[in-house]
Amino acid sequence: MAAGSGSSNNFDEQLVLDLFDVEAVKFGTFTLKSGLTSPIYLDLRVIVSYPKLLDRVAKAMWDASTKEDADGTPPATDFQHMCGVPYTALPIATVMSMHHETSMVMRRKEVKDYGTKKAIEGAYKPDDVVLVVEDLVTSGMSVWETVEPLQHHKLAVKDVVVLIDRQQGGRAFLKSRGLVLHAALTITGILDVLVAHKKVTPEVQQSVLDFIAANQNTTGNKVAEAPPKWLAQSYGTRAKSAKCPAAANLLELMERKKTNLCASLDVTTSAELLKLAEEVGPQVCCVKTHCDVVSDWTEATGAELQRLAKAHDFVVFEDRKFADIGNTAALQYECGLHKISSWSDFVNAHITPGPFVIDALKGVKGAGACLLLAEMSSKGTVATGDAYVKSALDMADAHPDFVMGFIDQTPKNWKCAKDVDPGYVHMTPGISLASKGDKVGQQYTTPHMAIVDNGADVVIVGRGIYGASDAKSASAEYREAGWKAYEARLQM
Ligand SMILES: O=c1ccn([C@@H]2O[C@H](COP(=O)(O)O)[C@@H](O)[C@H]2O)c(=O)[nH]1
């Protein structure tokens, strides 16, 4: 029986038939999470209810990873541990581990306190090699979400084994990240078996093959028309072309201090804020504040923050998100209890009021600079789409001396990315090494994803740092992750 490309030598017909019998492989019309309508649906979660099948799946996957594939892919590099991608692959990895007396490590999906370093459970040493075990691969993103924290904890990942390769671009995506994919089964191989056994018709087979061909590389990322200019340039080079002095200053600082980390210190007393700023100061290029959450803010709080900024070489960003008519925004910037313009190096503004909010902020005595919110990290944000981003860009381009860049999420994938001036700074919040989000709509991505895949320059980390039991070492870890990602981007 012909196996699909990339499957193991021992393509297991009985395994395919058993998966079909328990409805782990189904045909019909299914709406996927992405919104796409698919003629095939794979639900491998049911396997846990069939111990013999689970056993056979584990054996097939062990063989796929330890023997040469039909297409010549060599066996996996020797590994000391296996790590199942939560949750479906956890029992599979456990059975493989028990059959072959091989150690496992476990990646925690939700780690509240990054400082406890319990994102990876188990007994391991730096440079140990881990085989990642997953039930199926489509785009490769869910595998990557497990590989990244393993690598962050200094474990080496070279190979990934899956039961089914959906043949939709996952293999190439993983290869681009230096990983070899081993698959026990492929969709084309499964279809061949089921057609041969008259379980599905050739017409259904063709509709699935058409679906696969039409839906390649489903990472969910839009592909930019041309690579944005700023990605290949160093911060230092870009500082020279920045039209806004605050952008030039920040880019130079990042290059000099070798950090692209901004700590968002969202605490509620001056004492906590200043203590944290002192602790994380050596690691960051920027400290971000929300002065209106600090219950005892005084002029001295702002002055002390500036003293620390000078001592540790960072800049101070008040995340005020001005969103009113120009006159009010200017008053909010200069006056009131906080007198933001007197102690912050720069602020930010929503684009919803229109361009005059920028003129007004710029006119304030002691005004620094301003970032525009082009995208937000919160679930359900309406600040989305090419037109919204283009409005932010046009407003920035009209005030190049005062607008230093953007608060954004995926600037690399903007339709207009190739036209964006490399002198702008892209600052991205919603960053965590351990969590995917909170209960009130925050969505997180990792420093690597933000910088390499999405085009961020500065990663903004709040609870990942000030919520850790040791903010100092958490900031050092985020700094390392952010800088490594930037260096990797320059090599691409
Ligand atoms: O789209 C946005 C814009 C701003 N933020 C701010 O960043 C920090 C993130 O804090 P975490 O604790 O890391 O979630 C916070 O101050 C937000 O107001 C954002 O998250 N998303």
UniProtKB/TrEMBL annotation:
GO molecular function term, any single one: orotate phosphoribosyltransferase activity
Protein known as: Uridine 5'-monophosphate synthase
Lineage: Eukaryota, Viridiplantae, Chlorophyta, Pseudoscourfieldiophyceae, Pseudoscourfieldiales
SUPFAM superfamilies registered for this protein in UniProt: PRTase-like (SSF53271), Ribulose-phoshate binding barrel (SSF51366)
Similarity section: In the N-terminal section; belongs to the purine/pyrimidine phosphoribosyltransferase family. In the C-terminal section; belongs to the OMP decarboxylase family.
Catalytic residue positions: D319, K321, D324
Alphabetized UniProt keyword annotations: Decarboxylase, Glycosyltransferase, Lyase, Multifunctional enzyme, Pyrimidine biosynthesis, Transferase
Organism from which the protein derives: Pycnococcus provasolii
Keyword Transferase (UniProt): yes
Residues the record lists as binding substrate: D266, K288, S377, Q442, G462, R463
InterPro entries: Aldolase_TIM, OMPdecase, OMPdecase_AS, OMPdeCOase_dom, OPRT, Or_phspho_trans_dom, PRTase-like, PRTase_dom
An annotated GO BP: 'de novo' UMP biosynthetic process
Residue ranges occupied by any Orotidine 5'-phosphate decarboxylase domain in the UniProt entry: 260-478
Pathway it works in: Pyrimidine metabolism; UMP biosynthesis via de novo pathway; UMP from orotate: step 1/2; Pyrimidine metabolism; UMP biosynthesis via de novo pathway; UMP from orotate: step 2/2
EC number: 2.4.2.10, 4.1.1.23
UniProt cross-references to Pfam families, sorted A to Z: OMPdecase
Domain of life, per lineage: Eukaryota
